[in-house]
Design brief:
Mean pLDDT: 88
Distance between the termini: 60 Å
Bound molecules: adenosine-5'-triphosphate
Radius of gyration: 23 Å
Oligomer: single chain
Number of strands: 10
Low-confidence stretches: none
Length: about 300
C-alpha cells in the first residue's frame, strides 16, 4: 500500500493553563491517516483542536504524546517540512509589497533556485488567478485576494502536501468557489491537500474525506458521501408531473415493494443560488466590457 501523506497516531496535546499546573487537553488520542493525492477536511467547531493538530503536523508544536509523520518522516524533521506548503488561518503579509514581490520573497525563503524563480512565481500567480492584480500592493487587496495570494506563497516551492487552515474564512461565496477551484486543480496535479474548516457547506463538495473533531477527539472520519447519503433511500427528481398523478406514482412505488417517504421540492442551496446569480452578472459585465473594447 502507498505511504500515507500524513499519519497521526495516538496524538495528544496538553497546554498548561494558569499557574496551578492545570492542563487543557486540546488534542486527545487522535488517530488519522491522510492518503496521497486526496483532499482531506478537518472539521469541527471553534476550539475543537483543528489548528493545534495542524501546527503539530507542521512541526511548529511538539505533541505531549503520540506520533505524527509526513510521508513517513517525523513531522519535526526538516526533510518532512520541505514537502509541505502552508496557508495560516489569519496570514499577516507585509502590506507595502506587491503580490508578486510577496510570492517571490516566499519563493526565495523556501529555497527555490534563482534560475527557476521567475517561472515559479509567474505560474502560481497564474494558477490562483491573480495575474492582473499581482503588481498591486498587498495592502489594497480584498480578503479573497489575500487568501489567493496566500495560497500562491504556500505552493510556490511546489510542495507535495498543501495545508490550508480555514482557507475560506471571511471570504464571500464567489471567492470561496475560486479557492475551491484552485484546490481541485492542485489535486488534479497530484498534490495532497489538508484543510480545516467550520464552514461545512463549502467543504462538502470539495473534500474526498473528512474527519470531525470535537473537544480534541475524533468523532467520525470517512468519505463525505458515506457520511451524508441516506443509503437505504433513492431520490427521483421529476418535471412536469401534475399533483393529480402523485397517487398513481405512489401506487407504482408500492407495487415495486417500496414506500414513498416524502414528496418535496428540490432546492438549490442558497450558496449555489447566490453563485449562479453573481456569476451570470459577472459574465454579462465581461461581455459588455469586451464589446466596449472593440468599439
Ligand atoms: N497556546 C495555547 N495555550 C493554551 N491553550 C491553547 C493554546 N492553543 C490552543 N489552545 C486551546 O486548545 C483548544 C483547541 O484550540 P485550537 O485553536 O486547536 O482549536 P480550533 O479547532 O482550531 O479552533 P478555531 O476554529 O477557533 O480556530 C482551545 O480550547 C484553545 O483555547
Amino acid at each position: 500500500m502507498a505511504e500515507s501523506a500524513i499519519s497521526i497516531k495516538h496524538l495528544t496535546k496538553d497546554f498548561p493553563v494558569g499557574i496551578s499546573g492545570k492542563k487543557l487537553r486540546a488534542v486527545d488520542s487522535l488517530d488519522l491517516e491522510v492518503q496521497d493525492n486526496e483532499i482531506f477536511g478537518l472539521l469541527g467547531p471553534n476550539g475543537s483542536g483543528k489548528s493545534t493538530t495542524i501546527k503539530i503536523v507542521l512541526g511548529l508544536l511538539e505533541p505531549s504524546a503520540g506520533d505524527c509523520r509526513i510521508y513517513g518522516k517525523p513531522s519535526r524533521a526538516v526533510e518532512a517540512r520541505r514537502s509541505v506548503g502552508f496557508l495560516p488561518e489569519a496570514p499577516y503579509f507585509y502590506r507595502y509589497l506587491s503580490g508578486r514581490e510577496l510570492v517571490r520573497y516566499y519563493a526565495r525563503l523556501c529555497g527555490v533556485a534563482k534560475s527557476d524563480l521567475n517561472d515559479a512565481v509567474d505560474s502560481v500567480i497564474e494558477l490562483v488567478g491573480m495575474g492582473e492584480a499581482a503588481h498591486r500592493r498587498v495592502g489594497t487587496y480584498s480578503k479573497g485576494m489575500l487568501q489567493r495570494i496566500g495560497l500562491a506563497q504556500a505552493i510556490v516551492h511546489d510542495p507535495q502536501l498543501v495545508i490550508l487552515d480555514e482557507p475560506t474564512a471571511g471570504v464571500d461565496p464567489l471567492g470561496s468557489a475560486a479557492i475551491a477551484e484552485i484546490v481541485r486543480e492542485l489535486k488534479s496535479r497530484g498534490k495532497t491537500i489538508l484543510l480545516s474548516s467550520h464552514l461545512l457547506a463549502q467543504i462538502e463538495g470539495l473534500c474526498d474525506r473528512v474527519a470531525i473533531l470535537h473537544r480534541g477527539k475524533l468523532v467520525h472520519a470517512g468519505r463525505v458521501d458515506e457520511l451524508v447519503n441516506e443509503e437505504s433511500a433513492d431520490a427521483f427528481v421529476v418535471e412536469g408531473l401534475g399533483t393529480e398523478n402523485h397517487a398513481a406514482v405512489q401506487a407504482a412505488i408500492e407495487a415495486g415493494g417500496g414506500r414513498l417517504v416524502r414528496v418535496e421540492k428540490p432546492r438549490l442551496s442558497l450558496d449555489s443560488f447566490f453563485l449562479s446569480q453573481v456569476q451570470q452578472r459577472e459574465s454579462q459585465r465581461a461581455g459588455e466590457a469586451g464589446k466596449g473594447g472593440k468599439q
